[in-house]
Write a structure and sequence with these properties.
It is a single chain. The protein is of the alpha/beta class and about 240 residues long. It has a single domain, classed as Alpha-Beta Barrel (TIM Barrel). The protein has a six-stranded parallel sheet. A three-stranded parallel sheet has the order 1-2-4, with helices on one face. Strand 1, helix 1 and strand 2 form a beta-alpha-beta unit. Helix 1 runs parallel beside helix 7. The protein is globular.
Length: about 240
Amino acid sequence: MFHLFKRSYSPRPIFSVLGTDMHCHLVPKVDDGSKCYEESIECLNTLKAVGYDKVIITPHFQTPRFENDEDDIRRRYEDLKQQAANAGVEIEFAGIGGEYRIDSGFQKRVDNPRFLQIGGKYVLVEFSLHQQMMGCDEMIFDLQMKGYEIILAHPERYPYLNINGSRMEQLKNQGVFFQINVLSLGGFYGEEAKKRAYQMLEREWVEFMGTDTHNTMYAQALVDLSNDRKVEKILNKYEFLNKTL
């Protein structure tokens, strides 16, 4: 059994203003997220405890590391829903999406799209943490022309996307939505990512917030963050689109 609340902190429901967590990795054994149903259930209970009412789960699709199939992911998602119901989990399952890496295999998905969409219209994409793949803009544009709305996952974590450079502004002008990880606000990914996250918020470039929860370590970090008064003020200051999902 996993035990989350080992520290003196107790979870506070500060994320109720968001309502929906639209980015997490809690379908077991399909990516680098949860390893078993028990761990997923612990994390889901934590999401509820810190204020989330709904969850949209977004497994990785990445070539060649996570060669997931959408139909198989749907089946595994339904299995998780049943396990969670059996365990008395109270958070609402609001759908299955995907986090699609723009990599060497992405063009095939653009040519023959069968994306798992968030809220029935958004495709969540991510870049490499090291460098952006050539042709990214064209593939994003092609998807937009097919009627998809594009959300870029955690832009604050890409060190080559300088907040004062033209690249981020170019993506915003292209109509790309930004989703930052709430844990970035507490320095979970380092001080540079934290700095970029706050700068993007100040520029009002952030439409979505996600937890990106992978396992119980992330869940404990969420409990800790729920006691951060500065983060609580940020969540209440800006308007996010999570509640529209």
